[in-house]
Amino acid sequence: MITQKKTHELEQMLSEIRSESILRVVSEELSRSEQKISFPEYLLAKMQEKNLSPSRLWERSQIHRTYGYQILNGTKKPGRDKVIALCLALSLSLDDTQRALALADAGALYARRTRDSLLIYALQRNLSVLDTNLLLSNHLQDPLS
User: Fold this and answer.
1) What is the pLDDT along the chain (145 residues), one digit of tens a residue?
2) How far apart are CA 89 and CA 96, in angstroms?
3) Which long-range contacts (C-beta less than 8 Å, at least 24 apart) are formed by 97-103?
């Protein structure tokens, strides 16, 4: 299982520190959290966790099989919409999706953006990629590409 301290946990740690050891504690914790895995490794771990085969993932995410395997082996870097489609197909939580977006350097979802708020809604309700695209279309937003 992939674990990393959440921002609020790091903030709590910082608020509880009472001495000059702050630099040591913070640098140790941040260096642990910076030992990040790659997006393909994260995707594989989530596929195993959800017991989902690559072919089923490509089908659910509406990603072409060849491109999907290129994402998995690291030869292609997926865009933001592809990462979100993969997360929807894996029924990932919003936190896991934000982590996936960060690992893919694809930019976090931000609730103040209309399209992003609709994507957050879809993730929280485990909508399929098709249903998410219908939701986006009904609100005059671009579908996941």
Assistant:
1) 455 566 677 677 666 766 655 656 666 665 555 557 999 999 999 999 999 999 999 999 999 999 999 999 999 999 999 999 999 999 999 999 999 999 999 999 999 999 999 999 999 999 999 999 999 999 999 999 8
2) 13
3) 97/123, 99/2, 99/4, 99/42, 100/39, 100/42, 100/43, 100/46, 103/36, 103/37, 103/38, 103/39, 103/42
